[in-house]
Specification:
This protein has helices spanning 3-9, 23-33, 52-66, 88-102, 110-119, 140-159, 174-181, 214-217; strands at 46-50, 128-135, 163-167, 187-196. By secondary structure, it is of the alpha+beta class. It has a single domain (3-77, 85-210), classed as NADH Oxidase (3-Layer(aba) Sandwich), CATH 3.40.109. The chain has a 4-stranded antiparallel sheet.
């Protein structure tokens, strides 16, 4: 698969098959992703990879904790700007509406929306769960480097016939996750990412988000 095909076939997968991903495939993806560029070659990321019993134990803990705190804990950082303006707010709103439409959950169906939101924290059934940390002393340029690293994993996953779901929402569960991973206090949970084989029959995976036209996002001077 070439890079163009990997980009255009990559989606945020929200329903995975339970089929396990071979350990050597997971390691091969990460081994290639470590060549992602970073300013000053800081490589400001650390990845925890969970499968099997380790993943199941974490997800069980999340399910139990979610009974009392259904929307999670206070996140490590603000995931979206406090006053998100257009066109960004309009794009975010439409993405959410289009996603819920695939599973026939209306805006008035609060229970249905909360139930779908909580599936985030089961990695949507992915057999591999990953957590990306970075040092708290890092600043926005290094956060961008982590994004490049994550994109590299996403594209390499497509090369292996796999899909991913990158989830900054996991920052809301940093406390519970830390009890399982024991990261240094100096590290901050940036996001989680599910990895596995996409459930082709799940309606939610039919979602294809809109993209701004090239002339909307780029200005050319010659």
């Amino acid at each position: 698969m070439n890079v163009s095909d990997a980009l255009t076939t990559r989606i945020t997968c929200r329903a995975f098959r339970p089929d396990p991903v071979p350990d050597n495939t997971v390691r091969a993806i990460i081994d290639k992703a470590r060549f992602a560029p970073s300013g000053g070659n800081l490589q400001p990321w650390h990845l925890f990879v969970l499968t099997g019993n380790a993943l199941n134990a974490l997800l069980a803990d999340i399910r139990e904790t979610m009974v009392d705190t259904p929307r999670g804990q206070v996140p490590e950082y603000r995931i979206y700007p406090e006053n998100l303006k257009d066109p960004y707010e309009a794009r975010r709103f439409k993405c959410g509406e289009d996603m819920y439409a695939t599973i026939d959950v209306t805006r008035e169906d609060k229970k249905g929306r909360i139930a779908q939101f909580q599936r985030n924290f089961q990695f949507f059934g992915a057999p591999v769960g990953m957590f990306v940390y970075l040092d708290r002393t890092m600043v926005p340029p290094q956060w961008a480097d982590v994004g490049i690293f994550l994109q590299s994993i996403m594209l390499l996953a497509r090369e292996h016939g796999l899909h991913t779901c990158s989830q900054e929402a996991w920052a809301q569960w940093h406390g519970t996750v830390a009890t399982h991973l024991n990261p240094p206090d100096s590290w901050m949970l940036f996001c989680g990412m599910g990895l596995g084989y996409m459930d082709e029959h799940a309606p939610i995976n039919r979602l294809r988000t809109d993209r701004a036209a090239i002339d909307e996002i780029a200005t050319f001077h010659s």
